[in-house]
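Subgroup meeting minutes
Present: P.N., E.W., G.H.
Scribe: E.W.

1. P.N. recapped why we're keeping a running log of single-chain structure predictions: easier to compare across weeks, and new members can see raw inputs and outputs side by side.
2. G.H. added today's entry (423 aa).
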Amino acid sequence: MLVDDDGTVLNAHGIPYATAERFAAPIPAPRHCEPRDATRRGAACPQATSRLDFVNGPIADSLAKSEQCQVLSVTAPHDAQGLPVMLWFHGGANMSGSGEAPKYDPDALAREGRVVVVTVSYRLGIFGYLNPDADGEANLGLRDQILALRWTRRYITSFGGDPARVTVFGQSAGGDAVLSLMLGSQTAGLFHRAILQSAPLGLRKGREAMTAAMRDAVTAALADVAAGEATVEQLLDAQTAAVTTAQRFGLVGGFPFAPIAGVDPMPAAGDESRVLADVAGRVEILVGYTRNDADAFVAMDPRGQRLARLGLPGRVMARLLGDVLTRRIFGGPARGLAKFWTSSGGAAATFRVDWSPPGAPFRACHCIELPLLFGTPETWADAPMLGPGPDSIDTELARRTRGYWAAFAHHGVAGLARSSLRI
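Output recorded in log:
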């Protein structure tokens, strides 16, 4: 393990929690009795360049890539004993990213909040969410995540964490994963609180035809080679073909890879409300979004780029479009989930992130809260969303935001000053 510079936080990197053959269900990693080197970051799932690099800067580029990417890292105060646990699931549209990325280092969150933080990596894209064999194992990325939860339940006391006080939290695709974990048939009792940050909840329905068309595209792309024998590069090329096909299906095509309803461990789409109503009595939630979540997606879309070239009127129209899409995909569904939760007898709080630095090109966009929670100003210095300023991150706001998240992990909704936060 590593100790941070001031000796207050311990880091254990690259711990295997599961293993799996390609397109096969994961199994728990074998136990080992000899000391293991936990000073080096583990591998990320093979992936193409992230479409959000122009927002975040590179996330996982510095990491090795391997299909054996079921690893996690643990960050804990050096004197941790019986502290709440927080499991982080990263974003990246289920196509990119890794919990091992330096930008997700949770040292400040663990130190200030007195929590043990687990950051999780898992299979992505074609490897985790689109088995070319329609009758083969499915939802593999989600099943990896479930084994990470089981590993935490079994071993986190060794790091000073309390397995009876576990909060799962995730942003974007990671937030969607949090909802899927609440829906999953194998997760009861594995966590007790959940934070959903900018989850694209408005894109969960009407995916069946798109998924079938994506699988057809993969089959065509791999026509000359069996999926089990294809190279990683061939599989990533097939994934690109699937993503291109998904774009024909409108807004939902912007989030092509996600757990498939009705396939283990997910319930059928028609049963989701019933399952969540039952979960609401057992899991507290904090759910929210950023004020301009969709701005970056409008900017990357060719139609948004055409609007921007029209000068001021076009930029105004692009921002109005961003506002509409933010409400439809992120804001409205987040508020709706909180309302459903409380009406089902559960405890829920909401938040909205309005902050952005002066000169930020996409206002309070998707991912803007991440530097408030993780990493350091240095690790986020190459993130274009923060604008040109050398001191873009509001350090006091960052400390306050980490305080909100940690308070929720310690005390749930009762630990928050308000049921609706503005950041």
